[in-house]
Amino acid sequence: MESEAFRAMNSDILLMAEAGPGQAAAAFREARAFIEASERRFTRFSEQSELSSLNRGAGEWFHASADLFTVLSESLELFHRTRGLFDPSILPDLQRAGYSRSMDEVRQYGAELQKDGHLRVPRCGFGSMELQPATNSVRLPADMRIDLGGIAKGWIAEQAARIVSRYAEACAVSAGGDMFLIGYPEGQDYWEIGLEDPRDPAQDAATLCAQEGAVATSSVVKRAWKQGEARRHHLIDPRTGEPADTPWLSVTVMAERAVEAETFAKAFLIAGAEEARILSEANPGLSALAIDRSGQVNKLDHEEILNVYR
Amino acid sequence: MKIYRKAIRVWITLVSLASFAVGWIVLAHSPKPNQFKASDVQAMPALPPIPSIEQLSSGSQFSGFSIPQRPMARLRTGGS
C-alpha cells in the first residue's frame, strides 16, 4: 500500500493507494492538487475564497462554481435530515465563541474576545437559503454568513478518493480522520481503523473494521480553546448558539457518503443520547459510536452492517 | 644406417628411464593428502522439516517458514 501525507485544510491529510509506485505517485499528485484547490475555494479564512465572496454577497444572487453549488445543495438537504442540528449558518456564533481565525492561529495566539460577545446574534436559519440549480445560483439572506468547514472537508475527501481510485484498485483518503474508503487492502475484506480515545489521543478506544464508504468523527476535544476563562469548542448547538453541552467526547459515524458521515457525527454529538437515537432511527444506513467521558464506547444505532468493532 | 637406428633406440631408452626417475623423485617429495578424521567435520545446522503442499496451501499452523506480510494499511479517526 503506497501512501502520502501532507497538511491541508488545517488537518493532516493521508492518501493511500493499492497500486504500483508510479501509478500511486500520479494519483497522489492529482488528488493533492484537487485538495489544495478546493481548500482555496471553501476556506472562510481567506478573503479571496469563493465562500468568502458568497458571504460578502449575502442578500444578492451569487453565481457559484459547480463544486460550491454541489456542497451547498448537499448542506441544505442534510440541514433538513438532521432537523437543523447541522447548520452552516452558525458562523456568527462560532466567531463569537472565539473561532474567528484558523485553528492553527487560535492554538498559537489564543482566541479573540469578541466585543458584545455575550450577545447572541439572531439568525434566520440555513433553510432560508435559496438555490437555483438551472444557473448554479444561490442567495443567502442578507444577515446570513455560513461556514462549510466540516462538510466541505468530507466532500473533498470523497472526491479525492474517487480521483485516486482511477489509478488504484483500492484507496483511502483521510482528512484529519474524516475519510472515504474505496475497495479493500490486498488480502483484506475490510479496513482496520483505530478509533482514537478522546481522553488520550495516543491510545485507541476501539478498532473499527470498516466497509467501503465514509467514516467521520466529531469531537469536542480536538478543536477546543480557552476564551478568557471559558473553555470553548467548535461544535455550536444551533438551538442555543453556544458550544454544545454534550455527554459525549466524540461521535464517529460510518455512512455511504462522506457528507452524511460528517454531518451526522456532528448532529448526534450535539443532539445527545435520546435525540441521537431518534435521528438514527429516522436515517437508516448510518452506524454510529459515541465515546462518553468515562471512555465507554456506546453504539447509537441498530445497523447490522458497518458496525463491527472490538 | 643400422648404427643410426641403434643410436636412436638407445637415446629413447635413456630418455625414458631418466623421465621415469625424475617423476618418481617429484612424487616422492610432494605433500601427502590429509587423512579423514570424523572429528574434523563441522556439525550441520538443524533445519525445519520441509512443509507439504497441503500445509502451505491451507495456511495451517506450520511455522517452519515465515512468509513476510506487508503491513496492513492502518487509519485513525478522532475528529479534527
Describe this structure in words.
The complex is a heterodimer of chains A (310) and B (80). With 310 residues, chain A is of the alpha+beta class. Chain A has helices at residues 21-42, 50-56, 66-81, 91-96, 103-109, 149-165, 258-271, 273-282, and strands at 2-8, 11-17, 61-63, 130-132, 137-139, 171-175, 178-182, 191-197, 200-210, 213-219, 224-227, 230-233, 236-237, 242-243, 248-255, 287-292, 297-299. In chain A, strand 16 and strand 17 (297-299) form a beta hairpin. Chain A starts with a strand and ends in an 11-residue tail after the last strand. The relative contact order of chain A is 0.14. The model of chain A has no long low-confidence stretch (mean pLDDT 87). Chain B contains two helices and one strand, in the order ααβ. The longest helix of chain B has 28 residues, at 2-29. Chains A and B meet through strand 2, strand 6, strand 8, strand 9 and strand 10 of A and strand 1 of B.
User: What form of chain A results from the Cα inertia axes?
Assistant: globular
Major sheet description of chain A: 8 strands, antiparallel
Question: What's the gyration radius of chain B in Å?
Answer: 37 Å
The largest sheet of chain B is: none
> What's the Cα radius of gyration of chain A?
19 Å
CATH arch. level architecture of chain A: Roll
**Globular, elongated, flat, extended or rod-shaped: what is the shape of chain B?**
rod-shaped
Low-confidence stretches of chain A: none
Please report the distance between the alpha carbons of the first and last residues of chain A: 24 Å
**Quaternary organisation:** heterodimer
The fourth-level CATH homologous superfamily of chain A is: ApbE-like domains
For the largest beta sheet of chain A, what order do the strands appear in spatially?
Answer: 1-2-6-7-10-15-16-17
Number of strands of chain A: 17
- The CATH class label of chain A is Alpha Beta
